[in-house]
Design a protein that fits this description.
The chain is of the alpha/beta class. The chain has one domain: Rossmann fold (3-Layer(aba) Sandwich), CATH 3.40.50.2300. Helices cover 43% and strands 20% of the residues. It contains five helices and five strands; from the N terminus they run βαβαβαβαβα.
Amino acid sequence: MVGVNSGSFADNDFCALVVDDDEFQLDFVVDKLNELGISQITTANSGRAALECLDKMSRKPDLLICDLQMPDMDGFEVMAALESRKFSGGVILMSGQGSRVLHSASLVAQLARQEFLGTIEKPITKEGLYAYIKKMCDRS
């Protein structure tokens, strides 16, 4: 896939949706995606807002990056809603709650029917995102 070996996905036409109830985290993840050459990014500050965005988007995102713990609808509920919407993009779950929570999330997410790419601990890194997005590209 073009751009993957260079550490940038700028040559790919990726569309991403980032979901987090923390505005700082949203901006941080968007910055990391921009550094990887991904510029088509939609953000949502809650699970419900993310689902509303998804329902209105004419082009569904290739990648969803979702926080696990949010007040109105957590990452697991978002994943369940994605299944009913037959979402086919890659999913990365993120959390600041540590490796135990992420491991549990990973086990649950693997049972879902989405293309689960993995979990990432906050603060996320550009390298961590790159590895998961490359994994998604390699599966294509």
